[in-house]
Prior knowledge:
The structure holds two protein chains of two kinds.
Chain A: E1 3-7, E2 10-12, E3 18-25, E4 33-39, E5 45-51, E6 58-60, E7 68-73, E8 78-83, E9 92-102, E10 105-111, E11 115-119
Parallel strand pairs in A: 2-11
Antiparallel strand pairs in A: 1-3, 3-8, 4-5, 4-9, 5-6, 7-8, 9-10, 9-11
Chain B: E1 4-7, E2 10-12, E3 19-25, E4 33-38, E5 45-49, E6 53-54, E7 62-67, E8 70-75, E9 85-90, E10 102-103, E11 107-110
Parallel strand pairs in B: 2-11
Antiparallel strand pairs in B: 1-3, 3-8, 4-5, 4-9, 5-6, 7-8, 9-10, 9-11
Amino acid sequence: QVHLVESGGGVVQPGRSLRLSCAASGFLFSSYAMHWVRQAPGKGLEWVAVIWYDGSLKYYVDSVKGRFTISRDNSKNMLYLQMSSLRADDTGVYYCAREDLVGGYTWFDSWGQGTLVTVSS
Amino acid sequence: DIQMTQSPSSLSASIGDRVTFTCRASQSISSNLNWYQQKPGKAPKLLIYAASTLQSGVPSRFSGSGSGTEFTLTISSLQPEDFATYYCQQSYNIPRTFTPRTFGQGTKVEI
């Protein structure tokens, strides 16, 4: 059974850094692209970043480019999101999600429970 | 980036109702459209992928249709557990180019 567990959220001051982690189990982690998706309080879902199955490619939403870094350790089945220069509008629940791929179509078939990041002075 | 627009933003319905909501893409995305259900305080749950394929374990009262720029999600007979927010998400892939995944703003189904 696929299991994704995020950790590392908390309250942080504007301009500071935070690292989120996502522990994966129940599947061959090194075969899947992994994403971070966030949700501001009371708002909709926003895609944040993706990392290819082997870590070779990474892409980000424009609003976090240059501030966030996605990475993974396939030997430990771990996904990370290093967040720096945090701003109030980075506040929200951060989910890690697995992207499945079949026949050229992709979708997020498994999600973690989310970890809350609050950026506030 | 591809913009996704859902309508309506919310709707009120009763148990047993047939409900349909729409998702429109700012450009053609073929059938690269997925639907998720989210309940308060919970992670999203995949319902439909590739526009019309029901995810394993999802009740058959859920169905999706459409291609190109216009898509619909239908619940044939609304059940108490279906009151939630529904999001569409595009996953259009251009060869050798990554297209940022984008979500619609959601449709909240209320009693």
